[in-house]
Design goal:
61% of the residues lie in helices and 10% in strands. The protein is an alpha+beta fold. A hairpin with a 5-residue loop joins β3 and β4. The longest helix has 38 residues.
C-alpha cells in the first residue's frame, strides 16, 4: 500500500523531489557559466584580433597606394614584405605562394605586369567606404581591399 501511496503522491504532487530540483539548479547554473565562458573567450578572441589589426601598419592610406607598395615589394623580390600588405589571415598563405613561385621568373614578371595593369583600372568603394573592389572585365586580375582599424588599406583577395 505504501507503494501505491507514493505513486498517488507523485500524481497529486507533481513537484519533483528536492534532489531533482537541486540537480536542475546545478545544471542550469553550469549552463549559464558555460555560456558566459564561451562568450568571454569569443569576446577575448575578437578583442585580440582587433588589437592585432590596430597594430598592423603595413599598407597605404589608399587602396592604390597599398597595391603599389605590394607591386614594389614583388619587384624587389621581398616576398615577406609583400605578404604584409595582405590581411593578417592571408599573409602566411600569400608568402608561401610567392616563395613557391619565386624561381619561376617569367611567371612572377607576368604576375607583376598583370597587377600593374589592374592598378590602372577604376574600382568602387562600398557605401561605408571600408571596402574597395576592383572587378573589371578589362583586367586579368581582380582584387578586394579593406580598410583596417589602424587606418591602412590591406589586400583581402587577389
Amino acid at each position: 500500500m505504501i507503494e501505491n501511496e507514493s505513486l498517488l503522491d507523485r500524481q497529486v504532487n507533481p513537484d519533483p523531489p528536492k534532489d531533482n530540483r537541486r540537480k536542475l539548479k546545478v545544471a542550469f547554473i553550469a549552463i549559464i557559466f558555460g555560456l558566459g565562458a564561451f562568450a568571454g573567450i569569443y569576446g577575448y578572441s575578437l578583442n585580440a584580433e582587433r588589437a592585432a589589426e590596430m597594430a598592423d601598419v603595413y599598407g597605404g592610406k589608399t587602396p592604390a597606394e597599398t597595391l603599389q607598395m605590394f607591386i614594389d615589394a614583388l619587384k624587389q623580390g621581398d616576398y615577406a614584405l609583400a605578404s604584409k600588405y595582405c590581411v593578417l589571415d592571408m599573409q602566411q598563405g600569400e608568402l608561401n605562394i610567392l616563395n613557391k613561385n619565386s624561381p619561376k621568373k617569367e611567371l612572377m614578371t607576368r604576375y607583376i605586369q598583370m597587377l600593374e595593369e589592374a592598378s590602372k583600372q577604376a574600382g568602387t568603394y562600398s557605401p561605408d567606404g571600408k571596402t574597395f573592389l576592383m572587378n573589371s572585365e578589362l583586367s586579368t586580375i581582380n582584387y578586394r581591399m579593406i580598410l583596417y582599424p589602424s587606418g591602412v588599406w590591406k589586400i583581402d583577395a587577389l
